[in-house]
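Hello forum,

I keep getting stuck at the same step: I have a sequence, I want structure tokens, and every attempt I make locally crashes halfway through. Rather than fight my setup again tonight, could one of you with a working pipeline run this one for me? It's a single chain of 275 residues.
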Amino acid sequence: MSHTAHIPSHRKPRQSASKTALRAGVAGGVLSTIAVAGAAGPAQAEPVTRTVEMPTITAGLSTSVAASAQATQAVALDLETQANEDAAAATAAKTAKKAKAEAVRKAEAKKKAEAAAKAKAEAAERASRTAERTTLSASTESSGSSSTASAPVSSNATGSAASVIAFAQSHVGDAYVSGGTGPNSWDCSGLVQAAFRTVGVELPRVSQSQSTAGTQVSLDNLQPGDILYWGGAGSAYHVGIYVGGGQFVGAQNSSTGVVQKSLDYDPPSGAVRVL
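Reply #2:
Ran it on my machine without issues. Output:
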């Protein structure tokens, strides 16, 4: 046995070749870097600019902008349409108001014209009636008829008829005035109305209505107190009161006033009985 066999070895274990080569490579790289830096001297390293590419969003953005523009245009169109509708409604309301005011004005004008025409017709009718009675009276008086000078006769009426006749006879000689209702001037219907009012009978105001106020009777069957009328029933232009004895009392015209005359003086067209 060798004299060294029992002495343990102080040598380190051999590293594997791969590890040795790795270490050598690292060391060489470090030394190379140091060498390059030393050769470069104190020169400062230039800053490194790095360009970062952002994701492309152009397609999606265009679609969003287009949709927003369409929505804005639609809102603007709606607002414009609403404004046009409001303006049209305001114009229509103004036109309707103006048309209504014009219609009211025309209706009032028509009403006034009708009232004026009616008043004119009534005035013409009264004038015609007065002229007719005046002409008839003048013609009769000029003929020398004895009936024009007939003296008033006493009536044999009784009751309400007597009161009506007494009132009418008491106003013989009063003036005739168109539209007169007393106490000292009368037109024909005003005198008849006032006479019957004394017995509580309220007659219409005008001749036309008084000629249909009672029961139609024949001129051959007259009784004191009957209302005589001249013209048609419902369209009479003159009225008087039959007092009996073939005579009547009536407010004839502005020339004669209230008179009591024979029926022959101015023959009536018909008669109505109220009492």
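The helical segments are 17-40, 58-142, 159-170, 188-197, 207-210. If your local run keeps crashing, start a new thread with the error log.
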